[in-house]
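User: Some background: our group keeps a shared notebook of sequences we're curious about, and every so often someone picks one and asks for a predicted structure to add to the entry. Today it's my turn. The entry only has the sequence so far, pasted here. Could you supply the structure so I can complete it?
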Amino acid sequence: QVQLVESGGGLVQAGGSLRLHCEASGRIIAINDMGWYRQFPGKQRELVATITRDYATNYADSVKGRFTISRDNANNTLYLQMNSLKPEDTAVYYCNVDIQPMPAISYRAYWGQGTQVTVSS
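Assistant: Of course. Here's the predicted structure to add to the notebook entry:
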């Protein structure tokens, strides 16, 4: 019933920009914190940025000043604006959303399917 759909990934040249979207849908009671993670080949998934229900944000040092995380609570959507992209940003990006689904009484973590971001030099 509940699912996350990611979009916005693609191929871009170094210095360019991309905007990732993650939309939650289904029988949702509430959404709490959200975040973006990325995974390089052969490496563990790492945190990129998080945003709370009250819009407090946190960023990995590697993306500070370049990436901006935001959310639209009315539309259950999470965004990641990525500017000044570098080749080392190339990875699969995943959204993570804490959702209380019907008929649950607590939150659980849901993951998007992942979207590939490739930055060429």
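Suggested note for the entry: The chain has a mean pLDDT of 97. Residues 103 and 115 are 29 Å apart (CA to CA).
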